[in-house]
Amino acid sequence: MEFNTMEQYVFGGLIAWIIGLILLYRLLENSSKITIKETIRSDAQKTSENAVCKKDGPPDVVIVGAGVAGSALAYSLAKDGRIVQVIERDLSQPDRIVGELLQPGGYLKLLELGMEECVSGIDSQQVYGYALYKEGKYAKLTYPLEEFSSDVSGRSFHHGRFIQRLREKAASLPNVRMEQGTVTSLIEERGTVKGIKYKNKDGQDIKAYAPLTIVCDGCFSNLRKNLCVPQVDIVSHFVGMVLNLENGKLPHPNHGHVVLANPSPVLFYPVSSTEVRCLVDIPGQKIPSISNGDMAKYLIAKVAPQLPHQLHDAFIDQIEKGDIRSMPNRSMPAAPLPTPGAILLGDAFNMRHPLTGGGMTVALSDVVVLRDLLRPVEDFSNAAALTKHLESFYTLRKPVASTINTLAGALYKVFCPAPDQASMEMREACFDYLSLGGMYSQGPIALLSGLNPRPMSLVAHFFAVAIYGVGRLLLPFPSPKRLLLGVRLLLNAYGIIFPIVKSEGVRQMFFPITIPAYNKGSSVVMKSAMFDMMA
Questions:
Q1: Closest Cα partner for 358 from 327, 404, 412?
Q2: Dist. CA 347–CA 296, nearest whole Å
Q3: pLDDT digits (tens, 9 = 90+) for 172-197
């Protein structure tokens, strides 16, 4: 096609006009970025100065509990210049059999908070994925970490050592006051929380006042009833022990190991360079007694024969030594009661089955969201306005929290199936689907690791497993019996995931943009992210 002279002028002028607009837009964009960057740097400098200078005076925030959420939040808020008072029931090193695996997504949140050094100096082990065992077969699932630096991975450790490092990091700031004491109640005036009542380590009754009280006192919280609608469900129990393997290595080093035993899974993961944690899941609210030896008999007769041979002897040896502990596995959906002057966080607010090791990732993600929302607020004294401002927290946390919560609940029900054939087929399908490798394993493991917090992707993979299971039943030749079993499998999948999704909130999970508070809060969080990048 040829252009005449006039057409060439018109066409050339149009191209020049478009290029000019693009150049003008880029120039204005760069100018805006420079202005924003200078403003943020200025704000960062002011915040840094405040953090150093603002040591005296009443606290801006009182935090109840110095676990993962409490310690991380204390450090984050103090770094932004707030005076933070932390009351913890027991400041000695905790000794627990869970909270020992931090997913890669959780480690990234530690990086965002500037607390990544807390996994150093405690003999923590890098974890790069999972080995899934079932009836002599295994599938190796690796975290998709290709786009990250070499230090980004999962981390496993002794829970108490990690907690102490977090506390030390928080207490290193001069505007953090950490004290041992037992909080007995919240101080409320006309529906607004003004502070807390607690007994210090000398038994004295003390009141602490602050414009904002943040309750993160763990799964046994005695204060949550004032700030949420608690629906705590004990799903199962973990029976835990520490194994001493030859060379301290699992069959697949630097990987968690999940054995799909009957009636429920068994977990193994390193907690130091020489020790491996074993957690045996026992469904229900009652378990065999440890003290009279019934538990040892159960583990030897029912569990040991289903373990890989590399782990069998060490498992038996540890049972015979008798160092066995148990703890209930709780689940509780987040059902907040927004209360002026206070907010709930951590396991006090939201729990899920610990099978997927996602609890600390959710807690640290919540800390990042809450820090970002509080960062632009200069004064917390207007409790009603602050409560309104924090409305978006409950939706902004959903991508990470609901993905991990839903996956934990759904995966546990698949790995701990009912005795009917459809449930058994679903577990078989899940193992075989993950064994396919490629996108079939990388997608689910990215969700589990907290690297891909997308609820829609989770639901898609879950039903892909179910459809894959139906396909296995119908090939090579379908029959009425197999077709009926396939329908039951799909109904089983629906019955597993949709009650969990409903408890998480369908609108918040899949359509957050329709919630007005979400749009306002997301802009605040984006500005805070820019603050971190350019400060």
A1: 404
A2: 30
A3: 999 999 999 999 999 999 999 999 99
- φ and ψ at 209, to 5 degrees? -110, 145
Number of other CB atoms surrounding residue 27 within 10 Å: 10
**Could you give the angle at the alpha carbon of 239 between the alpha carbons of 235 and 245, nearest 5°?**
140
Check if the beta carbon of residue 105 is closer than 8 Å to that of residue 453: yes
Q: What is the pLDDT of residue 433?
A: 97
Q: Phi and psi at residue 120, in whole multiples of 5°? A: -95, 155
The first and second tokens of residue 446, run together, are 């990215």
Q: Cβ-count burial of 225 within 10 angstroms (0-12 exposed, 13-18 middle, 19+ buried)?
A: exposed
Q: Would you call 526 exposed, middle or buried from its count of C-beta atoms within 10 A (0-12, 13-18, 19+)?
A: exposed
Q: Are 330 and 361 in contact (CB under 8 A)?
A: no
**Distances 176 to 53, 59, 301 between C-alpha atoms, Å:** 12, 9, 51
Q: Return the amino acid letter for 305.
A: P
Mean pLDDT, rounded, of the chain:
89
46-61 burial: b if 16+ Cβ within 10 Å, else e? ebeebbeeeeeeebbb
Give Cα 148 to chain centroid, integer Å: 19
Kindly indicate the confidence band of residue 531, based on its pLDDT and cuts at 50, 70 and 90.
Answer: low
Q: Please give the distance of CA 522 from its chain centroid, rounded to a whole number.
A: 19
Under 8 Å between Cβ of 234 and 353: no
- Cα Rg, the chain, nearest whole Å: 26
Do 199 and 89 form a contact (C-beta atoms < 8 A)? no
Rounded CA-CA distance 385/80 in Å is: 20
* Structure confidence by residue, pLDDT tens digits, 297-338: 999 999 999 999 999 999 999 999 999 999 999 999 999 999
- The CA distance from 93 to 96, in Å, is 10
The answer to whether the CB of 133 falls within 8 A of the CB of 426 is: no
Q: Say how far apart CA 303 and CA 265 lie, in whole Å.
A: 10
- Rounded to 10°, the helix 480-504/421-435 angle is 80
Match 């006042």 to its residue by tokens.
209
CB atoms within 10 A of CB 152: 18
Q: Is 402 within 8 Å of 466 (Cβ atoms)?
A: no
At a CB cut-off of 8 Å and minimum separation 6, what does 34 contact? none
508, two tokens: 């918040």
pLDDT confidence band for 27 (50 / 70 / 90)? very low
**By three-state DSSP, how is residue 420 classified?**
coil
| Alpha carbon distance 534, 525 (integer Å) | 14
CB 401 within 8 A of CB 458: no
Amino acid at 70: G
Q: Give percent of the chain with pLDDT exceeding 70.
A: 87
Choose among 396, 393, 339, 397: nearest CA to 363. Answer: 397
Distance separating alpha carbons of residues 7 and 125, to the nearest angstrom: 69
